[in-house]
Amino acid sequence: MHIVPLSPDIDPTLAIREADIKRAFTAATLSAGRAYEQRGRVQELQISSGGAVIAALTQGTLPDPYVQNLRISRLPSGGVRIIGACSCPMRSQCKHVAAVAIAAQRRESMLVRSAPAPRRMLMSDAAEAPKALAKATLPAQIRDWLSGFDGEDDELTEEYPTSVRTRVYYVLGAEVLHATNGAVPRLLVDPMTVTLRKDGSAGSIRRYAPHQVQTPAKYLRPSDLVILSRLARRASGYLARADEDPVDTVRRILATGRARWGSAEGPAMTEGPERPGQITWIARPDASQQASLSVDEGLTAV
Questions:
Q1: Is 72 exposed, middle or buried (0-12, 13-18, 19+ CB in 10 A)?
Q2: Cα 185 from Cα 22, distance rounded (Å)
Q3: Which helix (H) or strand (E) holds 291?
């Protein structure tokens, strides 16, 4: 891994800790990111603004590497918040961003311990870094979305500024594909744009097409970028791809606090405890077998 430190004087209050990384990513994403970092896929790591801005390239499965841009900010309770955008289809908080955070944490710990005097980059390194970063760039829409959070009052977080009244609600439902007794319904996710009234109730409601995430609106939060990017890939016509981690996607939706059942004005949904279930087989009229999931009375398996 070729590391080009642009700012060796890291602000200790912005130094990334292992706990910060674990808080910023799911276990699956962190595991994949750690594997990428260990394989040396993180390239041209650049740390600037005392550790507040981190940029890098990460080699994925395609010939051209993906570009990452991370913003690091202090948390009132201690530690730091890590928010990152990536040029990969996931857009935000992906395994590439996790790999960069891990690489930066490793580098920063070395710099903080050694506390070297500031030094200039070698001319060869200075010339090489821009060439490497020129191989790929973040999509213009994502760069514009990030640039809107440069002010101190517009930090890239999950919190909404008081002036922003628009939200994306994730309406969940169940659809039975085959009218067969015991058939397991398919889970449906329908994003809706909701403008809240002053009392917090839903005002205007309209459907949000997941492909609109390509031009992110200001009311989207980092979690929305991940969720909507995954939903957009599933709805991309003949190029549609299955969700790589559907359980993680559902958990991310529930964690937003904006998941509703049936409609945007339906009951709020949260993740509950695990429930026992049992796979059973049901005979179809044509004598074939169909798998079914039996759950406790009053529950719906999807």
A1: buried
A2: 34
A3: strand 289-295
pTM over 0.85, yes/no: no
Task: List, for residues 44-95, the tens digit of each pLDDT value.
Answer: 898 888 889 999 999 887 778 888 999 999 998 888 999 998 888 788 899 9
CA 188 to chain CA centroid, Å, is 20
* pLDDT tens digits, one per residue of 254-272: 989 999 999 999 999 988 8
SS3 (DSSP) at 128 = helix
- State phi, psi for 118 to the nearest 5 degrees: -55, 140
Cα angle value 265/24/14 (rounded, 5°): 130
Given a cut of 60, is residue 39 above it in pLDDT? yes
Q: What does the block give as tokens for 89?
A: 């289809």
Both structure tokens of 173: 């439902």
Amino acid, res. 67: V
Cβ atoms of 168 and 253 within 8 Å: the answer is no
Closest C-alpha to 66, from 169, 136, 164: 136
Q: How far apart are the first and last CA of the chain?
A: 44
Residue with tokens 């870094």: 129
